[in-house]
Write a structure and sequence with these properties.
five-stranded antiparallel sheet, three-stranded antiparallel sheet, 14 strands
Length: 395
């Protein structure tokens, strides 16, 4: 059975040519991402030898690069993150709200990722919290988890924010839990209008502070008059904000979060083939009923599109707001549970889907031959030569 194609294989075969062609345009972050993915789980990063005392099987395990853009390294990070989130789930319906930037603003975002992404997070969170706090809608303090994605199904640049929100919140005086209407969270038209205003106000402030940079086709926007005209144009557009139907329950939220929080631009499972300098992969056509289609790109173009989605150093793509904010999450969740009068939810039992998501963690140190426990026999560090194959029964 042939090995499954991986993004790393494409980078290893075509990455050096891409570096040479784009030698003057490739940034430090992009170079580091390429190098990390190319070396992931190879001897150069170090590793260890482990053996099974039951059947004598030996396995060599190479270290992961742990880069957040690497498709192979997100599984364990996702499981660890979900384990920490499980105790925070509330026994209420959860909603999924998505905030999308129009193409004109996305172009500015690409040249100013850290600043515009931060504005996107702040504007979306403020929008949800302000509308929810309004007594005409919910009149409550809500909590939310926001996750940044910057890609579409064909790896084009499409920055948007996924927000997972409990269907209700604390009354503004903190004395009761207020639930939203069944199957309905907040009016998306109202959310869209406020989100557009808050975002453009913040973008204008960043421009006035000379924090935005413009290059290439956007160089003209450095002129105040041109930037003002652009803001007037996008202010007339309908900004897309939509809410999906509520989840079936807290454990469905956990499984859903696992599919969103640590996703990268493209999973290895979507890759089909690499023939010479062409890469084929599956994509879902949401405009035609979610039909699965196949796209074939030149390898250089595939790498270019993949690197469009690198994040600035130190940028947090998962953020928490409201009663889920890091500073007071524990105390506010305790209050929520007490008001919901359902304390047994503190120890939610995982359902089959969330258990399945955690299953690979349990199998990491099990023998693939007999299922017995594996023990570490030797370790080598990054830059060291791996040890010669050996097996010594010291029992």
């Amino acid at each position: 059975m042939p090995a499954r194609l991986e993004v790393a294989d494409i980078f290893r075969r075509h990455g050096e040519a891409y570096r040479q062609v784009n030698i003057g345009h490739l940034g430090r972050v992009e170079r580091r991402v390429m190098s990390a993915i190319e070396l992931c789980r190879r001897a150069e990063l170090g590793g260890h030898v482990e053996g099974c005392r039951s059947c004598g099987a030996i396995r060599v395990a190479y270290n992961s690069c742990r880069n957040r853009h690497c498709p192979k390294c997100q599984g364990q990070a996702c499981r660890d993150w979900l384990a920490a989130r499980q105790a925070e789930l509330l026994p209420v319906a959860y909603f999924h709200v998505v905030f999308t930037l129009p193409a004109e603003i996305a172009a500015i975002a690409f040249q100013n990722k850290a600043i515009v992404y931060a504005i996107l997070f702040k504007a979306a969170a403020q929008t949800l919290r302000m509308i929810a706090a309004d007594p005409r809608h919910l009149g409550a303090e809500i909590g939310l988890i926001a996750v940044l994605h910057s890609w579409g199904q064909t790896l084009t640049y499409h920055p948007h924010l996924h927000c997972i929100v409990p269907g209700g919140g604390l009354s503004l005086d903190g004395t009761r839990w207020i639930s939203c209407r069944p199957g309905f969270f907040l009016p998306v038209r109202v959310l869209s209008h406020l989100f557009r205003r808050l975002f453009l106000e913040a973008l204008r402030a960043a421009f006035d502070a000379d924090s935005l940079k413009f290059f290439g086709d956007l160089a003209g926007l450095a002129e105040p008059a041109a930037f003002t005209r652009l803001l007037a144009e996008v202010r007339r557009l309908a900004w897309v904000v939509y809410a999906k139907p509520p989840f079936g329950g807290p454990q469905q939220v956990l499984a859903y979060l696992g599919r969103y929080t640590h996703r990268v631009a493209i999973a290895n499972s979507r890759l089909i083939s690499m023939d010479d300098d062409r890469v084929a992969f599956r994509w879902r056509d949401t405009r035609h009923g979610g039909r699965t289609r196949i796209m074939t790109l030149d390898a250089q173009e595939f790498i270019r599109r993949f690197l469009l989605h690198t994040l600035p150093d130190g940028f947090h793509r998962i953020r928490h707001y409201g009663f889920l904010a890091n500073g007071h999450r524990t105390t506010r969740l305790e209050l929520c549970r007490s008001l919901l009068a359902n304390p047994q939810q503190n120890n939610l039992e995982p359902d089959a889907e969330s258990t399945a998501a955690a299953a690979p963690l349990a199998s990491v140190h099990r023998c693939l031959c007999c299922g017995g426990p594996m023990i570490t026999l030797a370790i080598w560090r990054c830059g060291q030569a791996p040890p010669s194959p050996f097996w010594s029964d010291t029992s």
